[in-house]
User: Which sequence fits this backbone?
């Protein structure tokens, strides 16, 4: 059993997919905006902050936290503030490769394991109409980089190099490795 320090339904679905036993406890940890940090350092620090914020209320239960960003030409794209910003992000990603970074922090007692996964995603060239239609669905508004690889934006993606679950928001292999290093059993053996 562990605490997922995130309200993300995508992260919850990924943990359910692998049979992990968890409870959801989002935090109000202050996230860094990225100035002066590499994307990898940023997501690791934000994941660490989220895990630390959840530990006091976790009552000894291990904590899992994550943070995801999209990077294009060194610029970090988080979640868009509104539809106009989503359209701008998607226009810039159109026809290009970008990188998705997710930092994962696993904390158990005084021990914390933190690392990041990196995945390259290539988008097809998108028309203004395709972008507007997609943004009108509302799907991009709470996603880093303004798209959901597991949703309607799947039709935009021509190639992925690396972890698919990383692009969704939680690199499952890395999560399992960090949990093992921290001595955490992800799985509910009662339900097995």
Assistant:
């Amino acid at each position: 059993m562990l605490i997922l320090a995130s309200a993300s339904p995508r992260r919850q679905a990924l943990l359910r997919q692998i049979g992990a036993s968890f409870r959801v406890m989002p935090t109000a940890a202050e996230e860094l905006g990225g100035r002066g940090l590499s994307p990898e350092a940023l997501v690791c620090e934000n994941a660490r902050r989220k895990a630390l914020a959840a530990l006091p209320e976790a009552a000894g239960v291990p904590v899992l936290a994550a943070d995801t960003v999209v990077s294009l030409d060194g610029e970090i794209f988080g979640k868009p503030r509104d539809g106009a910003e989503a359209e701008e992000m998607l226009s810039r990603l159109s026809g290009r490769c970008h990188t998705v970074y997710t930092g994962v922090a696993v904390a158990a007692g005084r021990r914390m394991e933190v690392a990041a996964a990196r995945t390259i995603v290539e988008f097809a060239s998108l028309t203004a109409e395709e972008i507007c239609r997609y943004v009108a669905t509302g799907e991009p508004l709470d996603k880093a980089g303004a798209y959901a690889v597991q949703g309607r934006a799947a039709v935009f993606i021509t190639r992925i190099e690396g972890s698919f679950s990383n692009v969704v928001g939680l690199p499952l292999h890395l999560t399992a490795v960090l949990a093992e290093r921290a001595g955490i059993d992800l799985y509910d053996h009662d339900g097995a």
Observations:
- DSSP finds six helices and seven strands in the chain.
